[in-house]
Structures are given as structure tokens and as C-alpha cells.
Amino acid sequence: MAASPKSKTSAKKSAAKRDETVSPTPRSKSGAKPLADTKGRADADAYGEHATFPKGKRPSDKLSGAELVQIYRTMLLARRFEEHVIDQFREGNLPGFVHVAIGQEGIAAGVGHALPAGDIIASTHRAHAHIIARGSSVEALMAEMMGRITGVCQGKGGSMHLADMSQNVVGANGVVGSGVPMMTGVALAQKELETGNIAVAFYGDGATSQGNVHEGMNLAQIWELPVLFICENNRYAESTPSWQTVPVDDLTLRGAAHGMKTYAVDGNDVLAMYDTTYVAAEYARSGKGPVYIVAETQRLSGHYVGDAEVYRPKGEAKAARAGDPIPAFRAELLKRKVKEADVKAVEAEVEETMERAVESALAADFPPAEDAMKHVYAEYPYPGPVLGAEARR
């Protein structure tokens, strides 16, 4: 049946409102400065409270050229890993759904390099970069993605349930926001055992409306637990823009509501992410309590591989690529007088590493059928590494 003139007008108004409101810039309804216009540093004057430092006193100022190149390597390795994952998924070599974090590598690398090996993390369904940044083998991760026995979970975890206890990675999780109560518990254990380690929970902006997230944050604040809650604000909960589900423009208010130490940071600037994580970790480790970090970023791909992204306004995805953190940091390295030959050498090494990872994963065996019921129930005494123990590098 043909639509009435009134319904056509309503549809046009709805489309216009969507295209006007869901822009490639954050907090567009309030007229705040867009992400692309910020200085790209932890003290950029765009969102709430930012970590600030005297000139020359940023934690990242102490990083050597070699260390900066390693951060770049982590970002690039995460990007190439996910690009290969997309290829293998389309070729039918990966089971299930796959969610990539292309465009968000600055957060993972900044956090991963700012934390010592003993700290413990939990991720989301978009976990690959977080785990790579903690030092997990991309060969074992790719094998896990393909369900092979040489994977980090012997082929039983797959993309959304990756875990690597040897690197103190409790794991990815398909349950939205579940890392918050989990890591609140892990942080309680670290406090009681006096390990000196902290816990870190990653989650997205959509999870900030979950009850379990606020319950975990509330307990962590009351008990002054050593935990970082890191919200990766890419402004979409799957296909739903945050303005439709979150009643505040500034997500740092979600942390402030619990009386929590709260930072906002440009997550596309890996060094700003490093600096903010470093000072937040010091605060939590000192016994002062948890820290809530909102890392502003943008997803350069769909919610899942194959997502047509029809919910994104025209031109948004293209505009988001201007903020791609990897070429931006490459340019920063050259500005800091890092030799381009060293950068190119890392780029070539990453390509070779990923080619080997895919080849070895495809050549590996699947778990035998008789192993199907293994690891269903906990073994006693527990044979694996203990959380908080020194990670193997």
C-alpha cells in the first residue's frame, strides 16, 4: 500500500534527524568540539577531565625510539591480524561470527604497553587487539580463531572467548559488560592477596547502560579496589547510536556518578592513551581505588564482518578514516626522528609474522573428538597459572 503524504513527510523528517544527529563527531547535539579537532593529547580540551602533565613530564616522554617503534608494531600487528581474520572468515576457514576493532588499535596498544606484565585484563567480543597488546602469540591466536588444537584455548574458545592465562588475559566475552563485575572480583583478590597488581576491564559505550556494569563499579568504589574501567566509546552499541540510548552526552559522568576518579582521552592518540593509563594505574595501584577512563574513538568497520552498516549516515565511515590512529602514529614517529628504515623494517616483519601465523593455523589439526568434554568442569587442584602470578613473556 502506498504511503500517505503524512507518513512520507514523517519518514523524511526521521531520516533528516538521523543524518543531522548521528554525525562522525562526538557530542554533536551539544555542539562540543569534534574528536578530529582535538590536539590528540591527554590534556586536549574537549571532554571532561583529562590527565595533564608539565612540559616534558609525560610518562611517554621517557619512551625510547625503540619502545615507540614497538608500540607502532603492536598497533600494526593488531590491524594486520584482523585484516587476515576477515579474509579467512570470508574464505570459510573461521567458524561463528567475527567482530573486529579496526580503528581502535590506539587504545589497545596504549593500555597494553603502559601496564606491567602482572596486571590482569578482561576484554569484550572485540578482543583481538587487547590480547595482542598484552603479548599473546598471533600464531596461537589465529589457530584459536580457526578452532585448531594449537590455539590459546586448544580450539575451544574462538573469537569471542579468547583467553591467554599465560599473559594474565582472563578472556574475551560475548556478554555485554561482563568484564566489569569479573574484574571487580579479580581486583578484590589482588587487594586481599597484596599482589601489587591491578585489574583492567574493557567495554564499550553501550555497556555503560548495563546494570552489571554499575553494580561492579559501585562495589569497586566502595571497597577502593585496584581496577581500571576502560570504556571504548565508538558511539555505537552494535548498530544503535549512543544518543538513542544514553541520556548524557559526556560518558565521564557515568564514572563521576559513582564518585570515581575519571579521565577522558582521545583513544586515537596512542601516546595520550599510554599516558592516561600510566597515571590511572599508579593511582589504582597505590590503594586509592578504581579509575574510570572514557577513550573516544571510532570504528572503521561494521559491528561484525559482513555488516552492511546501513545505519551509519552517508559519509560518516569515510570521515572517520581521517582519524585512523596507525598512519597518525607513523607520522609522529618520523616527526620524532625515528628512522624510516626502522619503521619499514617493522612493517615488513609484521607482514611476515602474519603470513606465518595463517599458514601454521591452516596446517594445524582440529581437537580430537574425545576432547569434547574436557575443560567443562574445573579440575582440582587447578593445574593452570594463578591470576596475579608473573606472566610469561
Topology:
Blueprint: H1 5-21, H2 65-90, H3 105-114, E1 120-122, H4 128-133, H5 138-145, E2 169-171, H6 179-193, E3 199-204, H7 211-222, E4 227-233, E5 236-237, E6 240-241, H8 252-256, E7 261-266, H9 270-285, E8 291-296, H10 316-320, H11 325-335, H12 340-363
Parallel strand pairs: 1-2, 1-3, 3-4, 4-8, 7-8
Antiparallel strand pairs: 5-6
Helix pairs in contact: 2-3, 2-11, 2-12, 3-9, 5-12, 6-7
Structure commentary:
The chain has 393 residues and is an alpha/beta fold. The protein has a single domain (57-308, 316-364), classed as Rossmann fold (3-Layer(aba) Sandwich), CATH 3.40.50.970. 39% of the residues lie in helices and 9% in strands. The chain is built from twelve helices and eight strands. The chain has helices at 5-21, 65-90, 105-114, 128-133, 138-145, 179-193, 211-222, 252-256, 270-285, 316-320, 325-335, 340-363; strands spanning 120-122, 169-171, 199-204, 227-233, 236-237, 240-241, 261-266, 291-296. It has a six-stranded parallel beta sheet with strand order 2-1-3-4-8-7, sandwiched between helices. Helix 2 packs across helix 3 (105-114), helix 2 runs parallel beside helix 12 (340-363) and helix 3 crosses helix 9 (270-285). Mean pLDDT is 83; it is low at 1-48.
